[in-house]
């Protein structure tokens, strides 16, 4: 069995996460038992939710255990199998974590899934045609549920979730407005992803400026908002929300370092009868097949053209992860391992 390299969570962050929170180790790969599969990872996924799991605090998921491999999505190839369903050479997506190899129980529900790379590149199964894409689909379809012609807004618009949200919303006839960091990302949202407008939060860095920019970009108000960030962005959206607006609350990256995120005008939720619903996509596995089918079709037809930021080598995963939390990535953040 091959030697494995792994990145562990060595200690918990105090405030901002740092490279020193992680530890790179080399280990033996255990021999396969009956029903197990050995996977060589090609890419691992870096996602904002991982920052929340580094804290030992109450959340929707158990904290990442200290001294164990960082949890996360992976795509790769079956190297060896003692399970009838998986053969060497199969391309698979799973939750292998921050390591070169994983030994997976082939019978465990949802732990390993074969994928077709004929029309969809393998790496996309960690982004547009994976968990982030399904996240966008669920928030749009099941919570916001827009009618054609309605205006929807998404923060972190050029990331893996935001870019999928834009394509899905345009396919439903919506006016789609993004919020992203920097003119290059905003130009990509409009010119490549097909957004109707995109607001640079770095140029509109307070509530008043963002509210004015939203007023200009959303002349008919805001009917739906997909929230990845929180903070003053949510305050600004609420100021421009129409009656009976819907907010799909997916992430609060502005508060991941422990800072409180008070709402300035919570009365607007009542005044406009706004529905705000938080959700965790892994609790809605029943929609994944339908969502993945639509997302794969959008990619194959060229209506969803996701960008990727790719760091090279397992040892560079912590630095890439911290950069993603600061918005340094452009599109889905991955680490290439092979």
TrEMBL record:
In the UniProt record, does the keyword Oxidoreductase occur?
Answer: yes
Q: Does the keyword Cell wall biogenesis/degradation apply?
A: no
Name one matching Pfam family. Answer: ADH_zinc_N
Keywords attached to this entry:
Oxidoreductase
Organism, per UniProt?
Answer: Comamonas kerstersii
The record places domain Enoyl reductase (ER) at 17-335
* GO-annotated molecular function: oxidoreductase activity, acting on the CH-CH group of donors, NAD or NADP as acceptor
> What is the recorded name of this protein?
2-alkenal reductase
Which InterPro entries does the annotation name? ADH-like_C (IPR013149), ADH_N_2 (IPR041694), ER (IPR020843), GroES-like_sf (IPR011032), MDR_fam (IPR045010), NAD(P)-bd_dom_sf (IPR036291)
